[in-house]
Amino acid sequence: MCATYKDAKYFRSEQIAEHMCHSVTLQTTDVQVGRGYWKLPKGILEIPEVTSAIISEARALVPILLHAHNPGVVWAGWKKRTKDFVEHYHAHHIASKGLTVQRAEQDWVSAMAQAARGELTNM
After folding, report:
1. How large is the C-alpha radius of gyration of the chain?
2. N or C: which end of the chain has fewer CB atoms below 10 A?
3. Model pTM?
4. What is the pLDDT of residues 69-95, one digit of tens each?
5. Where are the strands (E) in the chain, listed by range?
6. Can you tell me the distance from the alpha carbon of 16 to that of 8, in angstroms, rounded to the nearest whole number?
7. Lowest-pLDDT choice from 11-15, 47-51, 119-123
8. Phi, psi of 33 (to 5 degrees)
9. Nearest-angstrom CA–CA distance, 37 and 114
10. How far is CA 26 from the centre of its chain?
């Protein structure tokens, strides 16, 4: 609150005769916005690469869990690695979709310019 303090004043109240009222004015502050909570998009599990990677990792994990002295730690580590993999894949998937749209828009503009010049041929 000290960082946002701007001004303070005392004033007489119409309702309270024997006391003065205190008013504090605070400055506006920028709100720090951090990374939001990541949720698994359901569509990402429909991508065959993602599901096959998770299934193969899970199949390899089962014998390790059965013989581990600390299966909870092994399981927690696998969940973290899998979540990191899916988050990373999701970020790249979104970026590649954006690049695909950008390339399509560039191709469209180029085709429109060629058509305007009469250079576009039927394929």
Report:
1. 30
2. C
3. 0.53
4. 999 999 999 999 999 999 999 988 888
5. 5-12, 20-26
6. 19
7. 119-123
8. -110, 120
9. 46
10. 32
